[in-house]
Design brief:
Layout (H helix, E strand, L loop, with lengths): L8 E4 L2 E9 L6 E5 L4 E4 L8 H13 L7 E5 L5 E7 L3 H9 L1
Parallel strand pairs: 2-4
Antiparallel strand pairs: 1-2, 2-6, 3-4, 5-6
């Protein structure tokens, strides 16, 4: 995946913002692919009472070896399409984690 078709990843001050399309109630939490506009992620949690958002935050924190406080859902709290802010990691580092 080249940088020109990764509109889902934007560098930001002290981190980056990732646009994610979330599928809740999956067998396991995982990244299932990337499209031009979003990263597709499955989470085990159901989409009730913020559980899917919490699972997404925990997933990214674990994936990037960051504390949960460095990951937050900044848009789309009740939608499948979300914008997730990740502090303490560069956009280049995110692409390396995602591609491995």
């Amino acid at each position: 995946m080249t940088a020109s078709n990764m509109n889902w990843l934007v560098a930001a001050k002290d981190g980056c913002v990732i646009t994610v399309k979330v599928t809740p109630r999956a067998a396991k939490s995982e990244i299932i692919g990337a499209e031009a506009e979003w990263l597709r992620v499955r989470v085990k949690a159901p989409p009730v009472d913020g559980k899917a958002n919490a699972a997404l935050i925990a997933f990214f924190a674990d994936l990037f070896n960051l504390p949960k406080k460095n990951v937050s859902v900044v848009a789309g709290q009740t939608a499948r399409l979300k914008r997730v802010r990740v502090d303490g990691i560069t956009a280049d580092a995110v692409t390396r984690f995602i591609s491995t």
